[in-house]
């Protein structure tokens, strides 16, 4: 029975390790970059562009209201052609009678598009903050969308399985490794002591 149990634990342990390996490396590295964010300098790259929305499409914009519906699809396509930023699917701010404003944040970047309701002029700005900022935002789940949201949950579950199976394997082998439980105790005591007495 012990052999079967041990075999199952080893299987779950290596499978969860394989599934979470790359993401665990990414999250570990970005943990360091986030912890030293003030020491890592990055010069944002700002790109501005403008264009013109044809009158027939301008007429398709809804009346100003307090809603947050996205732009009509054909309008969004025309805007993407004009300013090289695709606002399709993003919520639009319709509360201003003179302007439609679409915020388009993403990992490592901030972007926006505005449409002048009277003239049809389209203005856009895209700010890229670099690869480190991009990876840091992935770590935080900032402006990363639904797919990444669910990926983080699946990755977290894999890490929990990896950790718990590792703990059970430690328990099974602890009899022959006297330092096992002192080291496990340290893994709890060190962050606990730092959090209680030094993290303020």
UniProtKB/TrEMBL annotation:
<dbReference type="InterPro" id="IPR032307">
    <property type="entry name" value="PepSY_TM-like_2"/>
</dbReference>
<feature type="transmembrane region" description="Helical">
    <location>
        <begin position="181"/>
        <end position="199"/>
    </location>
</feature>
<dbReference type="Pfam" id="PF16357">
    <property type="entry name" value="PepSY_TM_like_2"/>
</dbReference>
<keyword id="KW-0472">Membrane</keyword>
<feature type="transmembrane region" description="Helical">
    <location>
        <begin position="12"/>
        <end position="34"/>
    </location>
</feature>
<keyword id="KW-0812">Transmembrane</keyword>
<protein>
    <submittedName>
        <fullName>PepSY-associated TM helix domain-containing protein</fullName>
    </submittedName>
</protein>
<keyword id="KW-1133">Transmembrane helix</keyword>
<feature type="transmembrane region" description="Helical">
    <location>
        <begin position="147"/>
        <end position="169"/>
    </location>
</feature>
């Amino acid at each position: 029975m012990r052999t079967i149990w041990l075999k199952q634990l080893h299987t779950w342990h290596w499978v969860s390790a394989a599934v979470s390996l790359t993401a665990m490396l990414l999250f570990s590295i970005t943990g360091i970059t986030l912890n030293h964010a003030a020491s890592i300098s990055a010069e944002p790259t700002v790109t501005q562009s403008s264009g013109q929305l044809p009158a027939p499409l301008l007429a398709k914009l809804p009346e100003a209201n307090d809603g947050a519906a996205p732009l009509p699809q054909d309008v969004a396509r025309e805007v993407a052609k004009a300013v090289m930023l695709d606002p399709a699917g993003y919520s639009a701010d319709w509360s201003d009678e003179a302007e439609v404003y679409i915020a388009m944040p993403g990992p490592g970047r901030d972007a926006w598009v505005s449409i002048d309701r009277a003239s049809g002029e389209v203005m856009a700005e895209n700010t890229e903050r670099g690869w480190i900022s991009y990876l840091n935002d992935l770590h935080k789940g900032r402006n990363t969308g639904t797919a990444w949201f669910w990926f983080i949950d699946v990755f977290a579950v894999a890490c929990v399985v990896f950790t718990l199976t590792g703990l059970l394997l430690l328990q099974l082998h602890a009899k022959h490794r006297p330092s096992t439980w002192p080291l496990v105790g340290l893994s709890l005591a060190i962050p606990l002591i730092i959090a209680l007495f030094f993290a303020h």
